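So, does this match?
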Amino acid sequence: MIIDSIELTNFRNHAKYAFTFSNDTSLILGENGCGKTSVLEAIYILTRGKSFRATDQEIIKRGTDYYRIILRYKNGEQTTVTYDGKTKTFVILDKKTKRLPKKYKYPVVLFLPSDLNLISHSPGRRREYFDRLFSQLDENYSDSLSRYEKALKQRNELLKKENVTKDMLFSWNIILSKYGTDLNRFRKTFVQDINSKLTNTYRSISKNQDSIELDYKSELSNMTDNQYLQKLENGFQKDFYLGHTTIGVHRDDYIFLFNHKVANGSASRGETRSIILALKFIEAQMLTSKLNQKPIILLDDVFSELDETRRRSLIDNFKNNQVIITSVELID
């Protein structure tokens, strides 16, 4: 699927905005703060169903009470979303729905400047990054993650109550143990797939013999549902004292290894950039292979952070995809 054009109304700082894309590479040029990233965010909402950085209420242009996006594809199809301050409504082929249907979701590789710091970011930021990728690769992962996060929120709210008892948490413990083990299993499988490609892809960029590995860290690996449940039950006193759930896959982490050492500290700035580029290339490969569709590539002002060699590698690897780039300067 190739995007043809987009129209924004009351979206972020755009009262009205329209852009027509080419079939291969499009450049959105402008100064910082002019709303370039907002265009990529709007594309993401209508290809994935929700923003990658904010709630709908935060997106509405100040002083207005709704936003609307219209996304048109080269084959003549069109998707529209409107948020009126309370309800988000998608319209596809004259049919209204509150969520973007699975068959109208389209794979996207999103490359933000902050991704270049993924190796040194917090565990939470890395979980968020891989959750976004894994949710695209498998709808069951997305469903398990949603159910887990809702149950975790409910359990944490109960833990803040003075009169909470162990029995009051049991039903939430059951849900967390079920979907937590599901998420753990998915994550291990996807990380194994990434690792099967990571070193060779990195070497194709760096032109050396360094080795790269992604180490998935989880205190709950290889546990059954019942073992996971027992961990939650045994941790009640600590959780009650701290007021939140201290055990679970929401505490997992992904550690990058550079020549068998933790990359954060052992890899140079250029080497970490090459690792992230390799990860992005693998992300596109996995989405294409799993979903049998070439993802749309959204590059948000990352060219200014890369040297000429890495810029060329980025262009060459995505030459067969539709690529939409934002930048503050013209790109050769």
The chain has two domains: 3-106, 120-293.
